[in-house]
Specification:
Belongs to the ribulose-phosphate 3-epimerase family. Its EC number is 5.1.3.1. This is Ribulose-phosphate 3-epimerase. With about 230 residues, the protein is α/β, with parallel strands linked by helices. It has an eight-stranded parallel sheet. It is globular. The structure holds D-xylitol-5-phosphate and zinc ion (ZN).
């Protein structure tokens, strides 16, 4: 099968109802989500805490698309096995999480998951160059990680274009995470992104009981990206 570079919208459950994640995921998928983005934070690598492998495992049966797990944790290696056992489809580790990102990505693949690498706004894009053959996705942070609802950092757009050139023909997705909405999506996709994570912009105005707003939000981002 050829590599799928069609646009994918990945709602981040960070913006959903923490007491009702299973229904939130099902609602999002019924409304057109392509992947489900799951933000794991440790209160150390980022100044916020979310949840760990047991939550990912509990969510697993609700996700029928792809469970895209963004690990904002350091260290990463001691937890890879637990997240793989929780049946995450992809584990994305930060290039800044240290100390050995190359080893971390190898370990993720060895545990049977797709491997992704994420990069913060303050890190030169060249930092991911040595690992592009070990991943199927680069997650370009367009906010500093830790919280939803932050403003998109505009200076990342030319960096996305640069990454697109660095990737060349490799089967590697470019995912954008942070401040993506119908105003910023178009510039990300024009620069070469094919996966858009959306937290606040995807969940705004809806709920698992009234999911139509989720569909409207996803369509608005998709339409803006195609324009
Ligand atoms: C930020 C997380 C994002 C976050 C995006 O640290 O990695 O996935 O949920 O939220 P919005 O779309 O609201 O910026
Ligand atoms: Zn994320």
């Amino acid at each position: 099968m050829s590599f799928d570079r069609n646009l994918k919208i990945a709602p981040s459950i960070l913006a959903g109802d923490f007491a009702d994640f299973g229904r939130e995921v099902r609602a999002m998928e019924s409304q057109g989500a392509d992947w489900i983005h799951v933000d794991v934070m440790d209160g150390h690598f980022v100044p916020n805490l979310t949840f760990g492998p047991p939550m990912v495992k509990a969510l697993r049966p609700h996700v029928t698309t792809l469970m895209d797990v963004h690990l904002m944790i350091a260290p990463v290696d001691p937890y890879i096995e637990a997240f793989a056992e929780a049946a995450a489809d992809r584990l994305t580790a930060h290039v800044e999480a240290g100390p050995h990102i190359h080893r971390t990505l190898q370990a993720i693949a060895a545990a049977g998951c797709k491997a992704g690498v994420a990069i913060n706004p303050g890190t030169p894009m060249d930092a991911v160059a040595p690992v592009l053959d070990l991943v199927d996705l680069v997650c370009v942070m367009t906010v500093n990680p830790g919280f939803g609802g932050q403003s998109f950092i505009e200076s990342r757009v030319p960096e996305i274009a640069r990454l697109r050139e660095m990737i060349g023909d490799r089967p590697v997705h470019i995912e954008i995470d942070g401040g993506v909405d119908s105003k910023t999506a178009g510039r990300c996709v024009a620069a070469g992104a094919d996966v858009l994570v959306a937290g606040s912009a995807a969940f705004r105005g809806g709920s698992a009981d009234a999911p139509e707003a989720y569909g409207k939000n996803i369509r608005a981002i998709r339409d803006a990206a195609a324009a």
